[in-house]
Amino acid sequence: MMNAVISERLKTRFDRWDVTGKGVVLRSDFEQEADRIVRAFGRGTTSPAARNLRSALCWMFDVVAGESGARPDGSVNEEQFREVCVNLIFEHGEAAFNRLLTPVLSGVIGLCEKREEGRINRTEFATWLSALGMSMADGLAAFDKIDCYDRGELSLAEMLQAVRDYHYGRLDIELIRT
């Protein structure tokens, strides 16, 4: 059963993608998020890393749209989005969540300095969160709470765990703002 924390986080995630405020998300909204993240890292939107992130986010939209039975115009409304996410979280579990988010988070790490090592540092993590609507200061504070080993960087697995725990309501750190 979905609790209030999960419900609010799904609403925040949907609202962040629904930049027009029309109550639907489109593939182009996911493309725009990729572009915002790429620009936050100071990269060109045609770089290989940018294309990888855009591809991962578009694939995510395609999965959500496919699972939702998207409307003929290719849009997903909030009710459909919630249903797909709740199904993902409660029916398919963490493995399905990981399968959906790993390419996106790999794409974010691909924009970072240590991408070959598969790690994201404190400033890069805050930069990513700033593209999701947070201030750099709040992003740095979030990183400090997540970096439980105090190494100053997170692996893909640690980043995935943090995002997953956030959406499952097990991490009391804000990662997205509308």
Report on this model:
The protein has 178 residues and is mainly alpha-helical. The protein has one domain (4-167): EF-hand (Recoverin, domain 1, Orthogonal Bundle), CATH 1.10.238.10. The protein contains seven helices and four strands; from the N terminus they run H-E-H-H-E-H-E-H-H-E-H. The strands form two sheets. The chain has a two-stranded antiparallel sheet with strand order 1-2. The longest helix is centred in the middle third of the chain and has 32 residues, at 78-109. The two termini are 25 Å apart.
Which residue ranges are poorly predicted, with pLDDT under 50 across at least 5 consecutive positions? Answer: none
Mean residue pLDDT: 91
CA radius of gyration: 15 Å
For the largest beta sheet, what order do the strands appear in spatially?
1-2
The span between the termini is 25 Å
Count of runs of 4 or more consecutive helical residues: 7
CATH level 4 superfamily: EF-hand
> In what range is the share of β-strand residues?
5-15%
CATH architecture: Orthogonal Bundle
- At CATH level 3, the topology is Recoverin, domain 1
- Please summarize the sheet with the most strands: 2 strands, antiparallel
Number of domains: 1
CATH class: Mainly Alpha
Shape: globular
Structural classification: mainly alpha
Question: What string gives the helices and strands in order?
Answer: HEHHEHEHHEH
In which range does the helix fraction lie?
55-70%
